[in-house]
Amino acid sequence: MVTKADPEKKRKKSQVPFRLNVLFLVVFFLFSVLILRLGVLQIVNGEEKRLESEAVEEVIARKEAPRGKLLDSNFREVVGNEPFFSLTYTKTVDTKAKDTMRIAEWLADRLGVTEDQIKKITVRDKKDYFIAKQDVTKMIDERLNKKEKKLSDKDQYIALVNKITEEEINSLSDKDIKILAYKRAMDTGYAYSAQRIKTNLNNEEVSVISENLGDLPGVDIMADSKRIYPFGGSTIFGQVKQIPKSKTDYFMSMGYDRSDQVGISGLEDQYENVLRGTKEKSVYLTNPKTGATIGEPKTIPGQRGKDIVLTLDMELQFQLEKILEEEILRAKPLGGNDLLDSAYIVMMNPKTGEIKGIAGKKYENGEFRNDAYGALFDAYEMGSTVKGATVLTGLQQGLIHMGEVIVDKPFTKNKMNKSSWRTMGPITDLQALMMSSNVYMFNIMDRMIGPEHWTQTYAKARYSFNQYGLGVKTGIDFPNEAVGYEGKPPEGESGTLYDLGIGQFDTYTTMQLVQYVSTIANDGYRVKPHLVREIREPATDAEGHGKLLKRFEPEILNKIDVEQKYIERVQDGFWQVMHGARGTAKGYFDDPAKYHNPAGKTGTAQRIIRHPRTGNIVEKHNLTLVGYAPFENPEIAFAVVVPEGTPQNGNQKINKYIGQRALEAYWNLKEKYGENASAVNGNLEKDNEEDSAE
């Protein structure tokens, strides 16, 4: 018997097959898609995926990132980057010669070449290009003899190159030369190394290349930069160039590519690892068996190098350079002094070692060039400026006592006759510094001579001088600092020992001289000088400063082993030099508003030389000056060196004029920062008897 529920059951039963059919259809569709995908992978991409599965090597191509900037102590950019676009070419191991030839032809037709590109083409390049355009097999068959044909492929090619005539080279057309310019640059690079083949692309060139990159495998446009100097260049900053051949192995071991730009001198060299940017990386998968490149490379972005904040104040630096130029020109006409052609100055905070300014100028062929390097590398006999070290050595070793009176009169010993610049009579150690007595120093050095071999006496004196930074490296953060030259005395000769005590035997650099006077100003603590104050992350905007990564704190190299009362004694003597009644710099630094109560020491080292042009024997003076201010609490020390001045007509004052103007410039900039400081341009002062001291 049929119930009322039967129709409902029949309806539900009829829906089950329909749902199963839909399910089967969906499953069939999914399986079809899967089979289709497997087919694509197996048939269409099978070879690539097979190679990829075998690829066990990653090859990384790198592109240089912009270098970090150099900023002065007030965060003004002194070395920056000017952006431009470069055309690069990256070869792979499976790049064929015909590929580079085709691309070179395309580039030559659309971009043209620069004069610089053409200048780089050599005769060998032209021979290689001539051969590349020919049927090489046919050339070998026609041009090589039986013996040459038995050579290796490499030697066969060399023999073939040697048979290319000058006439054949000259047959290359202008178009050939343009193509060769690009092909040469493309062939120069190494596999997976982005090689610059043209720089400073204009907008039109960038557009043309960008539209055709798909047809130019290996070609790319790279954001590039070159160093710019908003305040003008300086030898201290250094240069950036391609890796020198002599250092290729070193830089390659550090992860550089042969085509990279690196700092080769100055601060660019010293802080290469800081200024160097993090390269953009392109990671290629390669098949270890075939060398084939698989797929497109994966790119990892790079980052600009870190910024360096210098201790230098560029306004002060500018003024120091100007002062040197003006004072050299002012001194030269006094007696037709054509040998006085250079001057150097270093200004340093004696407590921190921060170099506030370092300038050098050399006058050549009627114009000046920057020679700040000379303050670090050129060493001279510095004259009486070193007498502070001599007096301290005498006090430390008990050779003299404070206030001891020695008669300044001609010093005669072992057939030698030496004297001061004038006879001074009975004088104390303070007066000896104030008036710059040579005889007082001769007595100190004479008392140093003991029973030991004479060479040990020299070593003992030099060891004492070394404690102040004289004759040793100062430790400045700059490559290849010079240490000066130790004079070589004749066997058994003690006369040069006396000369050592008055700064006329061993030679020192201007940087050593400023460290020496800073050590005295700093109560005997010798501080390491430095040109870099901070290292920072790249700034994210034009006005901001990047995150501080490192600040260079003052570093004490040593404390001289001298009682404090002796150091204060020499400090008093240095003050007397500039303010005492008979000080050798009296009248130059008395104005407290301009100079802030400085102390210091003048120096003159006499030299007898042969004039480089006339051949005549002439007397020249190295004119030097060291000092610091204020006397009570020093915050700036300085050293001035003017080599080979003429001892006549007053131009031996140039060291004092430079010191005057440098101190005034420093204090003006401190008191009125941002405004141009006025310079001391006064008239030549009347000579006084102390101007010819030492």
TrEMBL record:
Which residue intervals define the domain Penicillin-binding protein dimerisation in the entry? 63-287
Instruction: Note the topology in the membrane.
Output: Single-pass membrane protein
Q: Which residues form the Penicillin-binding protein transpeptidase domain?
A: 344-662
Is Cell wall biogenesis/degradation found in the keyword set? yes
Subcellular compartments: Cell membrane; Membrane
The record's keywords, sorted A to Z, are: Cell membrane, Cell shape, Cell wall biogenesis/degradation, Membrane, Peptidoglycan synthesis, Transmembrane, Transmembrane helix
Kindly list any coiled-coil regions of this protein.
none
Q: One Pfam family for this entry, by name? A: Transpeptidase
Q: PANTHER family given for it?
A: PEPTIDOGLYCAN D,D-TRANSPEPTIDASE, PEPTIDOGLYCAN D,D-TRANSPEPTIDASE MRDA
Q: Which family does it belong to?
A: Belongs to the transpeptidase family.
Name of the protein described by the UniProt record: Penicillin-binding protein 2
Task: Specify the species.
Answer: Fictibacillus norfolkensis
Q: What is the lineage of its organism?
A: Bacteria, Bacillati, Bacillota, Bacilli, Bacillales
